[in-house]
Amino acid sequence: MAQNDDLNQALREFETTLADLESACAEMMAAPATGPAEQRLRQEIDALRGKAAALSDTGRQALARVDAAMARIRAVLGEEDG
Fold first, then answer.
1. Total count of domains within the chain
2. Which of these, 33, 54, 77, 80, could form a disulfide with 38 (CB 3.0-4.6 Å)?
3. How does DSSP assign 50-69, residue by residue?
4. Mean pLDDT of the chain, nearest integer
């Protein structure tokens, strides 16, 4: 259970950090780009947002699989006890 709680806490912290990053990026992107360096940074930020979203989704999927595996283990252990 502690491992599950740790995963949930890590996901919450990741999502909070991601929201903070998106807010900062939105502020930065509201300013007009003045050159190719800024445009490149904006493209990199967009790519990183995509990767962060994919990582968040992967984390949720992993958590669901861990939960399912724990349920199966509990079921097997319960059957052995009975």
1. 1
2. 33
3. HHHHHHHHHHHHHHHHHHHH
4. 84
Compare 2 and 43 and report the one with higher pLDDT: 43
Contact present, 66 and 3 (Cβ < 8 Å): yes
Give backbone dihedrals phi and psi of 35, rounded to 5 degrees, phi first. -170, 180
Can you tell me the distance from the alpha carbon of 23 to that of 40, in angstroms, rounded to the nearest whole number?
Answer: 19
The CATH number covering residue 76 comes to 1.10.287
Give the per-residue pLDDT at 71.
93
- DSSP letter at 34 equals -
Cβ distance 59 to 14 under 8 Å? yes
Total length of the chain? 82
State which residues form the domain around 37.
2-81
Q: What is the reported pLDDT for 68?
A: 93
For residues 50 and 2, give the distance between their C-alpha atoms in angstroms, rounded to a whole number.
Answer: 30
* Distance between CA atoms of residues 42 and 29, nearest Å: 7
